[in-house]
Amino acid sequence: MHRPNSAPTALLIEEHGFLTTPGACAATLPLSAATDMLATWRRKPKTRPAFLRLPHLDEEREKARLWSRRFREQSRRLIVLGIGGSSLGGNMLVAALAPNGWAVTFYDNICPEFLASLYDTDWEDVTVLAVSKSGETAETLAQFLTVLPVMRARLGPRYRAHAAVITENPNGDLAVIARDAEIPIIEHPAVGGRFSALSVVGLLPAVFAGADIDSLLAGASTMAEECLRPHPQENPALRYALAQAGMFRAGRNLTVIMAYGQRLEKITSWFRQLWAESLGKRDQAGGPQGLTPVDGRGVTDQHSQLQLYLDGPPDKQFTLLHDPGLATMGATIPGDSFHHLPAVAPLAGRTIGELFAAEFLGTRDALIHRGAPVRVLSLAAADPYALGEMILLLEMETVLVAELLGVTPFDQPAVEDGKRRARTYLQSMT
Ligand code: PA5
Asked: From the CA of 192, how far away is ligand 1's center (Å)?
């Protein structure tokens, strides 16, 4: 098993009332449907969903390495165009793992002001990677089509070496445009966008930025095996899926995921999409299902959301992400001249990391004290092995909660409605 040389840590999970809050693990949930599904996946590996197979696919990691090497031949920076599952996974990996994460910029929006910097770039030093599984996403096509002429104008025929696309659909519009522009097409594997973090979609930007993807995938592979086990006691994804689905049925329909650590913050954005698009559905009887994910940032949101979390309605379940290594980092707060001041006294001589850790523990305990169900996922942000474990755990929990709520996790039928209406507006604009 490949593990990083520098102080590897596994994902640590700690829970406080998460499995015992009223409703958690309720006997009314269709547990047998979930365990039957797992039994089939154990017996017939070919029936496993694609995201579960990704940690073992050498092809994806080799593709990521090959293309990263090619990009690096002419550029020190990578610009990723794409939205939703075509951006969030890669962004999470780069932010958490890559020491020089600044080398990759993700443009995941089309607000014209946000996009302005895209066109004003040092093109000699940049590769553009447009990612769209369908090849039909309006935002990504608009980004790519507007950036191509700028690249041509600045680089002449050399622009071809500075761009590539990832798409699954060889007949989709993105592939047609890429072929016309003689830009290479990298194959998107048959896995849904929001489950594609461990495919070339997430791995390529991560390798480019210097991340250790072997350890990442080793962690994911270990967790994939654990999450296939038959019993909730030995299968963390099944155990926590039962808890979360049960608490949802008992009225805790908000999932707060709050990150303590800058490198962990993008995990909350990735999770928000995974949870919302996979679970927010109609079940077979037409009933609305889904837990609303709420992302938070420690400590900042202690001064914004925490009052509501502590004294507001008991409709939330909490997952806190925590990087224990931060406790030993940061400047020491000098207190020599001011230690007599009451607000300064407890800070004097402490590091910023100690203050950060104390605030995390204080928030955790305040939630527990109010009877809120809390789970803490601790991982060193720069530890790819633990991150791989966590990604697989959260993906499996999502799929198992979907099974328990009777919805299909891998589609997003309602999103089409907004797209159709936007197209109508576009057509009617003069
Ligand atoms: O998870 C999903 O499938 C979606 O969020 C897609 O990733 C998103 O809509 C972008 O689609 P595409 O990759 O086809 O451009």
From this structure: 7
